[in-house]
Each structure stands twice: as structure tokens, then as C-alpha cells.
Write a structure and sequence with these properties.
The complex is a heterodimer of chains A (about 80) and B (about 400). Chain A contains no helices and 8 strands. Chain A has about 80 residues and is mostly beta strands. Chain A has a 5-stranded antiparallel β-sheet with strand order 1-8-7-6-5, with no helix packed on it. Chain A has a 3-stranded antiparallel β-sheet with strand order 2-3-4, with no helix packed on it. Chain B is of the alpha+beta class and about 400 residues long. In chain B, the strands form 3 sheets. A 5-stranded mixed β-sheet of chain B has the order 5-6-1-7-8. Chain B contains 15 helices and 12 strands. About 0% of the residues of chain B have low confidence. The chains are: A mainly beta (about 80), B alpha+beta (about 400).
Chain lengths: ~80, ~400
């Protein structure tokens, strides 16, 4: 199932070798451990550039948006297998 | 430099949009998927994954037909911003190998590596190195087929012989052998109609095309006959230096179309969308420094019949209002039935600046457009909108409307 969302989330990341590695996220009062960062891309939103992280755990694929100006993370897409 | 001594790389990303989505989402990997427009019911498959292609799904197939041909297909809405960003990243990788990169489409580029590679062994090593960088920086599921040959025409043909993830080297003395293994319409520049005309002349392969008198080819196809003759010998007329845009690879037209959320014959709704499309076309023309003297407006009706007409201006323009007015004059009398898709395109392009208008109001509008263009160049599409188009909602996913086309 593919859902479009725009929910604020808490994210734990590691900064390694100039890369941002998403380790875990908290959404809807539930903690998700992230297994893979599959793709990172950027997009322009007015004057600023925002980052999108396509990450996954064993059952879900999440698209996370990072606004670098406000350091705000949002869950913008959820794809659940099956 | 002698054109036969050039070494050209053609890199074609395999099932590009689908591969990017499979890279982003591991649950789509290994499955037949089709990248569609914003509304899956009223859309086409813009790109089918390698798995879907194996099951018979073809590019530009309607979604209902794709479902019929391949019931397990997963239809997935496209994300043009993502594909644009990845396109810039793979072209940046290419530019780290050679400054002579010529993007050919959103997922294909030519690289002139004559000086950097020196010979075909060097070219093969460079192709492998590019492939490694693509895998490291974009991911292992975004793959490319690479062709190496003495010109762009043959490099493109070479890259298409092995898919996906192929690497095909065609040295100058192997060009005719490659051509003789291909169908006429495998070559970029020979479509199904040209193939039919060639067949009618008794030409069904490249060997026969080579042997056909050039004089007769020119009589049938005019200057294109000379191109066909050279192509049959694996040569490219005016093998062009890459990078710099010149007359032969300048756009010949600009256009946009949009499949409406629902079929309608309401002129207010149609005008809103047409105006939005005209502004988009106008902005792309002004960005590229061109004006047009011809507008073609077209619609597709609910029964999938189409209608289109064109009009020519006295004075060339790139102003969205004038493009819209001309297009609406064409469509107004024919939009009496339910319209499914609406669009316009411009042609007879003129390059360079136009003469300023004698009228102050028009000069003011030109200044305003210039200021708005600067804003749009800096902040992207959607930074401004005319009040008259506020009610036209162009869906953000896949339509391409929100994506500043650069190729």
C-alpha cells in the first residue's frame, strides 16, 4: 500500500563520511529501526533545497523529508509490502 | 580531427524511472512495475521495469492495457523531481571523466572521450569506471547500457544491442557488421514510416540500403536520402562536436499537454488549463531565448479521437497570454464535446531578441515577464502564477508540469 503523508517525525541519524545515515525514526508513537538508506535526492522548494531520504525496514519503505533550514523531518510517503 | 578516429560513448539508463523507484523502494525490486502519471486510471506507463517489459508491457501503453497484458503489474506514480535530481548527478559523474558531455534525453547522454580515452581499450576501461561510479553513488539497481563507437549514431545503436546493463564496443571496422545484424528501424532516425517507404523501394536491410543508388535515395527522400546513405555505411553526416548546441540540435518546437482530472466541455475549466500550459511553454521559450511564429493547439476527446490546428503570427512571441489567445481561438469552436486532454505547442522558432513594442503597455508587460522569469530561474516552477489560472490545479506527481524541462 502506498500512502502520501506529511507527518512530523523524530529521527536519529549518524553523520559518517559526509553522509547522513538514518538509524531510526519515531512516528505515531512507534519506533522504527531503519535497516537501509536506499536513495537520497534533493529538490528545490522556493529558495531552499530540501533533502529526501528513501529508507526501509523489514516491512516498510519510508520517504523522509529533511528541511535543512529548520532541521525539521517529515514522513511524506509510506509504502507497505503486501 | 578525422571523424572516423573519434570515440563516442552512449550511456542509456535502463528502464530509468522504474529503476530509480526500485532503488528507492526495495519492495518494488524484482517485480513488474509501471511508472504512471498522477491519475493511474487515466494514465499511461511512462516506464516499465525490466520485469514488466519481459511480461509484455511496453512504454506508453495505457494503464488498463498494461493491467490486461500483465495483471500482477504494480502501477506506481512517477516523481519527476527525483528523476531530474538523479539525472544531474549521473551527468555530473560523466563530466568528471570528460567535459564533452551532451545530454540527449532525460536518461541518455553522449560523451566524446576521444582525447581522454585515446583508444578503444582506454574507452572500455573508462566505461567500466563510469559504471562503478554510478553503482557507488546512485545504487546498484540504477543500471546503464553503454555503447562505444566512432560516432553518436553507432554508439547509440551499440548501446541498444545489449540490455540491460550491457557494454558493447564497436570499432570502426566492425560498424558494417553491427548494421547488418540490425533491422532498419533499430537505427535512431529511421522510424516505422521511413522503414515502410524503404521497404516499398525494395530495401529491407542496411546492405541493400548501401547498394541503393544515392541519386534515387535523394529523389525519394531529398536531403534525408543523403543521411540514410551515410547511415547505411555507419557514418554520421557532420559528426558534430558535442557540448555546444548548434542549429541541428536546437529544439524545433516547445509544447505541453495535460490529461484533465475529469473529461469536461466547460470552457472556463479548459481555458484555465490552456492558459497554464501556455505560460509554461512561454517561460521555457524565454529561458532559451527563442520566440515562435506558430501555435498548434490540440485536444483529445473522451472517445480518444483528436483534433488539432495551427495558426501563424505576424510577429514572433514568447508571451503566454498571446500564445493562449491564439490557442483558445483555435480550440473554442471545437471544444463542444467532452475533452480528455488539452495541449499546445509552438514552432517556427526565431532566435535572438525581438524588436521592442511601440506600445507602453506591451513594453511594461515585457519588463514584468523578465522580472518573473528571473524569479522562476532562481526558485523554480510555481513561484508565480497568473490570477486567471489559480483554479487550474496541475497535479504535482508525474505530469511533468512542475518540472523545468531542460532537455
Amino acid at each position: 500500500m502506498h500512502e502520501m503523508l506529511n507527518d512530523p517525525i523524530d529521527v536519529t541519524v549518524a553523520f559518517i563520511d559526509n553522509r547522513v545515515l538514518v538509524r531510526a525514526m519515531r512516528w505515531n508513537e512507534r519506533e522504527y529501526k531503519i535497516d537501509h538508506v536506499n536513495l537520497v535526492h534533493t529538490a528545490r522548494e522556493g529558495a531552499k533545497r530540501v533533502f529526501y531520504f528513501s529508507v526501509s525496514d523489514a516491512a516498510n519503505c519510508f520517504k523522509l523529508k529533511l528541511d535543512p533550514e529548520f532541521l525539521e523531518w517529515r514522513l511524506v510517503e509510506l509504502y507497505t509490502d503486501g | 580531427m578525422d571523424n572516423t578516429a573519434r570515440i563516442i560513448l552512449h550511456i542509456d539508463m535502463n528502464s530509468y524511472f522504474a529503476s530509480v523507484e526500485q532503488q528507492a523502494n526495495p519492495f518494488l525490486r524484482g517485480k513488474p512495475i509501471g511508472i504512471t502519471g498522477k491519475s493511474q486510471e487515466r494514465s499511461i506507463v511512462a516506464t516499465a521495469s525490466i520485469e514488466a517489459k519481459r511480461l509484455g508491457v511496453k512504454t506508453a501503453m495505457s494503464t488498463w492495457e498494461a493491467k490486461k497484458v500483465c495483471p500482477p503489474i504494480i502501477l506506481y506514480p512517477g516523481d519527476p523531481e527525483k528523476y531530474s535530481d538523479i539525472m544531474h548527478r549521473f551527468n555530473a559523474i560523466y563530466e568528471s571523466f570528460t567535459p564533452n558531455v551532451e545530454p540527449f534525453s532525460v536518461d541518455e547522454s553522449f560523451l566524446d572521450i576521444t582525447e581522454e580515452a585515446e583508444d578503444y581499450f582506454g574507452a572500455t576501461c573508462m566505461a567500466q569506471a563510469i559504471r562503478s561510479r554510478l553503482r557507488e553513488e546512485l545504487g546498484e539497481h540504477i543500471t546503464a547500457s553503454i555503447g562505444i563507437a566512432p560516432n553518436k549514431l553507432m554508439a547509440k545503436l551499440a548501446s541498444e544491442t545489449v540490455k540491460p546493463n550491457g557494454l558493447t564496443v564497436v570499432r570502426p571496422h566492425e560498424v558494417l557488421n553491427l548494421l547488418d545484424r540490425c533491422e532498419l528501424n533499430d537505427l535512431c532516425g529511421i522510424g516505422s514510416r521511413i522503414k515502410e517507404r524503404l521497404n516499398a523501394l525494395g530495401i529491407s536491410n542496411f546492405k541493400q540500403l548501401r547498394e541503393f543508388p544515392l541519386k534515387n535515395l535523394k529523389a525519394e527522400f531529398h536531403s534525408y536520402g543523403a543521411w540514410l546513405h551515410e547511415a547505411a555505411w555507419g557514418r554520421e553526416i557532420a559528426s558534430l562536436p558535442t557540448v555546444a548546441r548548434n542549429d541541428s540540435n536546437q529544439p524545433k518546437s516547445y509544447g505541453h499537454s495535460y490529461t484533465l482530472p475529469q473529461n469536461t466541455s466547460d470552457p472556463r475549466v479548459l481555458k484555465h488549463y490552456l492558459f497554464g500550459l501556455a505560460d509554461k511553454v512561454g517561460w521555457r521559450m524565454r529561458r532559451d531565448g527563442v520566440t515562435a511564429r506558430r501555435v498548434t493547439a490540440f485536444v483529445r476527446f473522451g472517445d480518444f479521437t483528436s483534433h488539432g490546428e495551427q495558426r501563424t503570427f505576424h510577429e514572433p512571441t514568447a508571451d503566454g497570454i498571446r500564445l493562449f489567445q491564439m490557442a483558445w481561438n483555435i480550440l473554442k469552436p471545437i471544444c463542444l464535446l467532452d475533452v480528455r486532454l488539452i495541449g499546445l505547442s509552438t514552432s517556427l522558432l526565431c532566435h535572438g531578441s525581438t524588436q521592442p513594442s511601440l506600445f507602453k503597455k506591451e513594453r511594461n508587460m515585457t519588463s514584468i515577464l523578465s522580472a518573473l522569469d528571473k524569479l522562476q530561474s532562481r526558485y523554480g516552477s510555481g513561484v508565480w502564477k497568473r490570477g486567471a489560472t489559480l483554479q487550474a490545479e496541475f497535479k504535482s506527481r508525474s505530469s511533468g508540469f512542475h518540472f523545468d524541462h531542460e532537455i
